């Protein structure tokens, strides 16, 4: 089984970007940690990061046929991208939305996700470990 891990805008700056909020680990560290978890779970992952909405939509479409699920952190697009929401609704795959920070303790505009209603579930505020939890749930959880 193969899973797609999609990180949206500004997540290429993990480790340097607001470390008090997002921690000191880099995107490379995150993807390495996920590859390790995938190996232990006996599945494969493909990691995509882009700052461009259209590229994120393309990655969701690419996952449609060959993949078993998607883990996505849409970054700030979470709060307003109906195009990403529609892309997720267009594929018949389980999708888990991950946020590194606890968006509910932050600015009001981060409290609402336009993505959440078309996902299987959401993991918020548990740091990079949230991605490992999402992958584990997709592999071991019930459909
Ligand atoms: C984020 C939360 C978003 O509000 C923010 O725009 C991000 C990162 C998170 O992982 O905590 O870019 O998705």
UniProtKB/TrEMBL annotation:
Pathway: Metabolic intermediate biosynthesis; chorismate biosynthesis; chorismate from D-erythrose 4-phosphate and phosphoenolpyruvate: step 3/7. The lineage of its organism: Bacteria, Bacillati, Bacillota, Bacilli, Bacillales. The gene is aroQ. The record marks 17 as: Transition state stabilizer. InterPro entries: DHquinase_II, DHquinase_II_CS, DHquinase_II_sf. This is 3-dehydroquinate dehydratase. GO terms for molecular function: 3-dehydroquinate dehydratase activity. It catalyses: 3-dehydroquinate = 3-dehydroshikimate + H2O. SUPFAM superfamilies: Type II 3-dehydroquinate dehydratase. Its EC number is 4.2.1.10. Belongs to the type-II 3-dehydroquinase family. It is an enzyme of class 4 (lyase). Substrate binds at residues 73, 79, 86, 100-101, 110. Keywords: Amino-acid biosynthesis, Aromatic amino acid biosynthesis, Lyase. Catalyzes a trans-dehydration via an enolate intermediate. Homododecamer. The active site is at 22 (proton acceptor), 99 (proton donor). GO terms for biological process: amino acid biosynthetic process; aromatic amino acid family biosynthetic process; chorismate biosynthetic process; quinate catabolic process. The keyword RNA-binding does not apply.
């Amino acid at each position: 089984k193969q899973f797609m891990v999609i990180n949206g805008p500004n997540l290429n700056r993990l480790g340097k970007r607001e470390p008090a909020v997002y921690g000191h680990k880099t995107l490379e560290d995150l993807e390495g940690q996920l590859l390790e978890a995938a190996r232990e779970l006996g599945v494969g992952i493909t990691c995509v990061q882009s700052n461009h909405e259209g590229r994120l939509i393309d990655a969701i479409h690419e996952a449609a046929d060959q993949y078993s699920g998607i883990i996505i952190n849409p970054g700030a697009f979470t709060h307003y991208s109906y195009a990403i929401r529609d892309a997720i609704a267009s594929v018949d795959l389980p999708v888990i939305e991950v946020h590194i920070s606890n968006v509910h303790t932050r600015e009001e505009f981060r409290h609402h996700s336009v993505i959440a209603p078309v996902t299987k579930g959401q993991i918020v505020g548990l740091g990079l470990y949230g991605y490992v939890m999402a992958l584990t749930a997709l592999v071991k959880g019930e459909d």
